[in-house]
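[Meeting: bench + compute handoff]

Bench side (C.D.) handed over the final construct sequence. Compute side (W.E.) agreed to return the predicted structure before the next meeting so the bench team could plan truncations. Sequence as handed over:
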Amino acid sequence: MNQIKENRAMNVAFLVYDQVEVLDLNGPLDVFVKANAVIPGSYTCYTVGHTVEPVYTEANTMAILPNYGIDTCPRPDMIVIPGANPDQIMRYLQDEKFQDGILKWVTAQYAAGVIIFTICTGSMLLSQTGLLANRSITTHAMLLDKLEEYNPSSTVKRDVRYVDDGQLITTAGITAGIDAALYVIAKQQSEEVAAVIVQLFEYQQSQKSS
């Protein structure tokens, strides 16, 4: 995994799109925000949508105004891709606009060396991009069989919280995104920084990874 460049915050872009799952997004986002509070200047976090138009979260419970669109955002060092309801994810796999817009941008960023960090069903979104090919990956338990079906060359890990395959990190369902984000902070910063965040969250962290 890429380390933070000396004297520069790591740019962490959080992808938002229609019907995104709120905890998938906000759990890891808050981990990185807290890390930057503990070590000021370590992370710059921002949201990225296809455009800067509002997007609605799952069940239309709230709207998010992205900080940037994919054509205007600062170059990320890491892109965090939260998931959505499995039925919604499967619809996005057939959505040419989504594939040709957001996912084409993600693929280009990956080719430029950007770390891709998917949360929950977010990994399934990448099934037609080629980014999961020949990788060890995971997702929410409800989509593990579909992930395997769509990515026959990949090794789909079951009964794990997250998988670190270098430039690609994938997680199991929802709260596993918090565990993986804490893991990333411990790896990039220190175990001590991650422990401080766990205390701030009053969180019972799971260590089961692959």
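W.E. noted at the follow-up: Confidence is low (pLDDT under 50) at residues 1-5. C.D. will use this when planning the next construct.
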